[in-house]
Amino acid sequence: MTPYQDWTPADAADWIAVPQADDDKYSRGVLGVVTGSDQYPGAAVLGVEAALHTGVGMLRYLGPSRASDFVLHRRPESVTSAGRVQAWLLGSGIDPSTADGLTRSRFAEATASGLPLVLDAGALAVRAEATGPMVVTPHFRELSKASGMDLHAVRDDPATAAARTADEWGATVLLKGHRTYVAAPGGVRLVASSAPAWLATAGAGDALGGILGALVATHHDEIAADESALARLAATASVVHGLAASRASGGGPLTVLGLVDALPATIAELLRR
């Protein structure tokens, strides 16, 4: 198996898009988001918060109405009408067995668009319909269920599980854990290990999806030129996520909104390096 390369904060810093004087909200990237549900509206809020704190020109939230109300209450700059996007974040906080008609329709629109996709949780099942480059972001149990691999095999050897899945699915795989393994089909293998143990908390994956969605939207041109950029962006998202968690934790417990609040300062510190 191709060996995994450690992805460091210095590596991550090279994959942060810094806006220039002539940029506008469109050139900085527009992220379409279909996350959350009536059961789990908080997943939408956390992902949107994380994406906006990571830096993106515009965010279109196109999920269920109850979640949309929560998102707009928290982030009124979010746009809730359909329109131009450059990447999609799908699936956080969605149970595919109970997804409503609007959610299913948005998933179909996104997978048919040919645009880069970040598929989390409830969107893993639509990977076969994707027409553009994609990165999937399962944790151990989600990967076991979606791939048919034994859970203990995934937990005991996540590096092999991520690489095998990437090759079988033809997708970049970000396998979440204390050490996060990122594998591109037939190629790039990266591992990020900046996360504190305190990050094992509900909602952390929703925030990671938002961070990654923002990075993918701001680097859509690079992905169009080279799909392996998705792996480097996924590893960068994991590094940023972990460093923000450490900043929010200070050695103790943290909340996911605390992690989100720490993102701008974390990114600023990365860029100063």
Main β-sheet, spatial strand arrangement: 1-9-8-7-6-5-4-2-3
Based on DSSP secondary structure assignment, what is the total number of beta strands? 9
Which shape, going by the Cα principal axes? globular
Query: Percent helix among the residues?
Result: 40-55%
**Superfamily at the CATH H level?**
Ribokinase
Please report the first level of CATH classification, the CATH class. Alpha Beta
Q: Structural class from helices and strands? A: alpha/beta
| Distance between the amino and carboxyl termini | 32 Å
- What is the CATH architecture descriptor? 3-Layer(aba) Sandwich
- Output the helix-strand order: EHEHEHEHEEHHHEEEHHHH
Low-confidence stretches: none
And the CATH topology? UDP-N-acetylmuramoyl-L-alanine:D-glutamate ligase
Question: Could you tell me the strand content as a percent range?
Answer: 5-15%
**What is the number of helical segments per DSSP (H or I, 4+ residues)?**
11
CA-atom Rg in angstroms: 17 Å
